[in-house]
Each structure stands twice: as C-alpha cells, then as structure tokens.
Write a structure and sequence with these properties.
Blueprint: E1 5-7, E2 16-19, H1 22-31, E3 39-43, E4 48-57, E5 62-71, E6 79-85, H2 91-102, E7 106-111, H3 122-136, E8 143-144, E9 148-149, H4 150-156, E10 162-172, E11 183-188, H5 196-204, E12 208-211, H6 219-231
Parallel strand pairs: 1-3, 6-7, 6-11, 7-8, 7-9, 10-11, 10-12
Antiparallel strand pairs: 2-5, 3-4, 4-5
Length: 233
Amino acid sequence: MRLYRFLVQDTFNSHYLRIIDEKIIKQWLKVLRLKEGDEVILINGQNQEALVKLINISHDFIEGEIIEVRKNQNEPKIETYLYCSILKKENFELVVQKATEVGVKEIIPLITSRTIKLNLNQKRLEKIVQEAAEQAGRGIVPLINNPVNFENAIQFARNNDLNILFDPEGTKFTKNIIKNKNKIGVFIGPEGGWDDKEIDLAQRNNFKIISLGKLILRAETAAIIAPYLIINS
C-alpha cells in the first residue's frame, strides 16, 4: 500500500516525534482520517525520510514512533537548475509544480527583455513546491529563488558544468550533450522567445543553444520537458 508522505522540520534523531503543525494535524484527522497504528513517511528536506507509526492522536498534537530512518533514493543523479522566465497567469505555477515532480533541484525565475509578468507570490509558489515534492516522493524540496535578470543569471550559472539555452533555432538535443555533466543549468525564455542579444550573450558565455524539436512549444511546456529530458537521459 502506498504511504502518504509529508514534509516536517525534524532531524529524526530520536525514536519518537511529536507533530504540532496545525495544518498537518487537520489534514491527517479530517481529510485523510488517519488513526493510531497507521504509518506515514516523513521527509525533512535534507534527503532523509522516516517511516513513522502513529501512536497517539489528539486535536492538539500527534505522536509517532520512528520505525526506520533512511536516505531517500529518488533524487536524480544530475543536479538540474531551471532558469525560467516569469510567465503569465497560472503558467509559472504549473512550471514550478511539474519541474518539482520531474526532479529539478532549484528554480530561478528570470526577467528577460520580453518578460511581461514581473511579480510572483513567493509563499504560494513555496506551498506548490512542497506539495509537489511530497507527492513525487522527493527527498528534498526545491528552492525557489528570487527573480533575477538574464545578465545576472548568466553570471550565477558559471558554476554549472553545462548551461543549455533552449530555442527553436538551436541544434537538436542528444544525450551526448550532457555526457559526464553533473550540474546543468536549463534556460527557458518567455512567451515571446529570446531576443538576439540574449542568445548572443549566452553563446559568448559558452552556453549550448539547443532545440526541443521541430514543433514550437509553449514556454511552460518547454520548461517541463527540457528538465525531464536531461534528468532521464
């Protein structure tokens, strides 16, 4: 039977733990209707997870016995950093959710020359990431960075083993592009695409300009497919 997974702030150093988070307690009691004797998996965002048996349930707290602590085995070997232009409406929230599910380690919102929407609801995005990480069985919760302009993002990405700017005019993606690369930056442009100056700047900083195929994808579609291809190649 598939066990429910939840993020908690705990080091799992004791044999027992106590949950006092009102949101978790409400979900467990009123939504999932968990009872004493049920088991859950708790993650602490540090790639550790604990199998926990519930032993004492009240409306103020829930106590559990830690049966096993183990390293999460689901995190991808390739660290993928998604630099995605801020998109309109719910599209960026969709990107954040699905990028978390496919295994992205960090998400960096980009402000490019053609970016239209500039403001983000950081708390809502963090909630989306947490729920997606729990659902997907992640061992960590991806970090949502503050928005940065394209030029600064180029500088931040210098620590990556490889940076890829995805553009319909780029060369075809192959597995050889990412061979022996462990830390990869994925750059996705806005609805209107990259301008020539941004592509030129990326090329001068040794970025690979890569295409996802002959069809023109929406920005949110590319932001989901590109990390998935890299992580699962």
